[in-house]
Specification:
Number of strands: 0
CATH architecture of the largest domain: Orthogonal Bundle
Number of domains: 2
Number of helices: 12
CATH class of the largest domain: Mainly Alpha
Shape: globular
Order of helices and strands: HHHHHHHHHHHH
Structural class: mainly alpha
CATH topology of the largest domain: MetI-like fold
Distance between the termini: 8 Å
Helix content: over 70%
CATH superfamily of the largest domain: MetI-like
Oligomer: single chain
Length: about 325
C-alpha cells in the first residue's frame, strides 16, 4: 500500500511537471506579445519593451520556467500581470466556487445514478428501456444547450431560481443552494447517464455470479444481497467512472460558469488566457492537475477498501 501511494505520488509529480511545462511554453510560443497584451494596443513600443523587462519576459524561456517552478516549490506562485493580487490568493478565492459546483454535482450524480442503475438492472422490462433511452439522450445533448434550456425555463419563465451569480455558503446557505441548483443540473445530466449505465451493467453481471446464487440458495434476503454484496463489488468500476466524471466536470465548469456568470476558475481561466496573464493561467493549471491527482489517488484507495480483491500495484 505504501509503495503504491509513493509510486502514484511520483507519477503525479511527473504529470504535474509535464502539464505545467507544456502550458508554459505553449503560452509563450502562441505568438502573442504578452507585454503588449497586458498594456493594451495603445501602448508605445518603448512601454512594451519596458514592461517586458519588468516582468522578466526578455529572458530565455527555460530560465523563466525554472524561476516560476522554484517559486511554486517555495510557495510563491507570483503575481497576476493584470490584477493587483497574488496568484495564490486569486486562484484560491475562485477555487471555492468551482469546487462547490463540481463536488455537489458529483454527489448528486452518484446518488441519482446508483438509484437509476439499480432500478434499471432489477426491472428489465420497459423501465429498463426507458432508462437506457434517457441515458443515451443525456449523453448526446450538449451541456451548454441543457444549461440554456434550464435558464430559460426555470429562471426566466418560472423564476424559481436565479439565472446568474453565486452566493457563498457562509453568507447564505439557502442562497448558495439556489445559486447552484441550475448549474449542477446542467452538469449532472450527462454524468448521471454514464454512471447509471455502469452501475446497471455491473449489477446485472454480478447478479449472475456463482457467489450470488449461493447467497440466494442460503436464503439471504434479496435486499441484503443487493446492498451488502452486489453493490459493494459494483462500487469499484463505478468509482472509476465517477473519477473520470469529476475530471470532465472540471473542464465542463468553464462553459457552465460562463453561462451562469459564476466567479469560478472557469471564467478566470478564460479571461486570463485572453489577456495572456500567464502566472494566473499557470496557477489554475497547477491547481486543476493537483486536484485531479489527489482525486484519482483517493478513488484508488476507496476501491481497494470497498473490494479487498482489488490489488494496488
Amino acid at each position: 500500500m505504501v509503495t503504491f501511494i509513493i509510486r502514484r505520488l511520483i507519477s503525479g509529480v511527473l504529470l504535474l511537471g509535464a502539464a505545467t511545462a507544456s502550458v508554459f511554453f505553449f503560452m509563450h510560443a502562441s505568438g502573442t506579445n504578452v507585454a503588449r497584451a497586458v498594456l493594451g494596443t495603445n501602448a508605445s513600443l518603448e512601454q512594451v519593451e519596458a514592461k517586458a523587462a519588468e516582468l522578466g519576459l526578455d529572458r530565455p524561456l527555460i530560465v523563466q520556467y525554472v524561476d516560476w517552478l522554484t517559486g511554486v516549490l517555495t510557495g510563491d506562485m507570483g503575481d497576476s500581470y493584470t490584477k493587483s493580487q497574488s496568484v495564490s490568493d486569486l486562484v484560491l478565492s475562485r477555487a471555492s466556487v468551482t469546487l462547490s459546483l463540481v463536488i455537489v454535482t458529483v454527489l448528486v450524480t452518484t446518488v441519482i445514478a446508483v438509484v437509476v442503475g439499480m432500478v434499471s438492472a432489477r426491472n428489465r422490462g420497459w423501465i429498463d428501456q426507458v432508462l437506457q433511452g434517457g441515458a443515451v439522450l443525456g449523453t448526446a445533448l450538449p451541456g451548454f444547450w441543457i444549461a440554456l434550456v434550464l435558464v430559460t425555463i426555470f429562471a426566466v419563465n418560472l423564476k424559481w431560481f436565479p439565472a446568474t451569480g453565486y452566493v457563498a455558503f457562509a453568507k447564505d446557505p439557502a442562497g448558495w443552494a439556489m445559486s447552484l441548483a441550475l448549474p449542477v443540473a446542467a452538469l449532472a445530466v450527462a454524468g448521471v447517464s454514464g454512471v447509471a449505465m455502469q452501475v446497471r451493467s455491473a449489477v446485472i453481471e454480478l447478479g449472475q455470479r456463482e457467489f450470488v446464487r449461493t447467497l440466494v440458495s442460503h436464503g439471504l434476503p434479496p435486499r441484503r444481497i443487493l446492498f451488502r454484496h452486489i453493490l459493494r463489488n459494483a462500487a469499484s468500476p463505478a468509482l472509476v467512472i465517477v473519477s473520470l466524471q469529476f475530471v470532465g466536470m472540471l473542464s465542463g465548469a468553464v462553459v457552465v460558469e460562463q453561462i451562469f456568470s459564476m466567479p469560478g476558475l472557469g471564467r478566470l481561466a478564460v479571461s486570463s488566457t485572453t489577456t495572456s496573464d500567464i502566472p494566473v493561467v499557470m496557477g489554475i493549471v497547477t491547481f486543476m492537475v493537483t486536484t485531479v491527482i489527489i482525486v484519482n489517488l483517493v478513488v484508488d484507495l476507496l476501491a481497494a477498501w470497498l473490494n479487498p480483491k482489488v490489488r494496488l500495484r
